[in-house]
Amino acid sequence: MPDGTQQTVARWERLKCENDWDNNTCPRPSCRDTTCRGDASCCDEVGPDIIIPSTVNAQSVHGLCYLPGLGRAVKPVPPDAPLGCMANQLGNAAALTAAAPGNLRLTFTSGRPRSLLMVEPLTGLSSLLDCDSVRAQKHPAPECTTN
Known about the structure:
Layout: E1 8-10, E2 13-15, E3 43-46, E4 50-52, E5 56-57, E6 65-66, E7 73-74, H1 93-98, E8 103-108, E9 115-119, E10 126-130, H2 134-138, H3 142-145
Antiparallel strand pairs: 1-4, 2-3, 5-8, 6-7, 8-9, 9-10
């Protein structure tokens, strides 16, 4: 942080493509295993830092990616690079389907019930569900009740 303190933060980053006319080349090979904070030359644009409180575990969101030109949400699974955003996979429907993020768990060390970042895989639209909410009771999500 500017004041010298360390915080866990999240932000969106728009990774550079290998070229300007082919979305399948995003991100560039040299940027598939790093963040833009690690290598600023990998990004065209970044969003503001959002401080994640120390009581929140948001690790499940790490690597969430919205495909360039499509907006489709993916969370690459091994053996793909976790930060590779499915480079060279835009035509591979099976790989894209397997990488659909689903409901991403946000857990809390404070004893608060978990929340879910619910990501619609085709459009990338997201919503937050608190697992102790009335909505969660009326429409239970398995990720709210299973470990």
